[in-house]
Amino acid sequence: MSLIKADLHLHTCLSPCAGLDMTPTGLVERARDLGLGLIAITDHNSAENVAAVRQAAGRLGPEGPVVLAGLEVTTGEEAHLLALFEDLPSALTMQAMVYSHLQEGQNDPQVFGYQIIANADDEVEEFNPRLLIGATDLPVHNLVRRVHGLGGLAVACHVDRPSYSLVGQLGMIPAELALDAVEISWLADPASAGRYLGGLKLPVLSSSDAHGLEDMGRAWSELEMEAPTLAELALALAGERGRRVAAIGRRGI
How many CB atoms neighbour CB 109 within 10 A? Predict the structure, then answer.
């Protein structure tokens, strides 16, 4: 077993609210410097920069982080849900479904920010025209089922926040919702995580939700598992076969 430091909620320059410094190379180099062995790229309602980040990470060799493919999907309740996948095709299948249910309209970069699809050399390939900042019309129960149907993991985002979280939008985490974990934000005291669960026995992660390079490293999870893979992460979240979430941490506020 190894203790792997992970940040499973990172945005790139594809997310309209992210900084232009969140390029594929800049992001993975910062992850390496922070000692992150496992990261997930989770742009708003899209996975179009995952391939470039993986290529950039590969150039770092064994010092580079393993990159999971993901999206931060906005549900019909306007709560955020992390969809995490091992393979890019599954993430892109999820992306196609999300695009087909995404709020209509085009992004206005002067209002919401640029949505840059970049390559591994940090060059602009194109701009995503969709309204990625918007919500889908898919209920969270539907989304969780679809994530699992594609072999992914579903994590409720920043449940301590009053907006864009299940607790903030619904007042609770539905007991029948088959989540794999919940995430608390970097602002939450890890010792107080239980107050947001309503008595549910769910594993708790912490992530940086970084929108700029300076945000990376403000929160993380330490996972005891054999390798930085989605299958091992699933075992750690379930607390099975000696794998576990060993600790969650945050930088001093």
Answer: 13
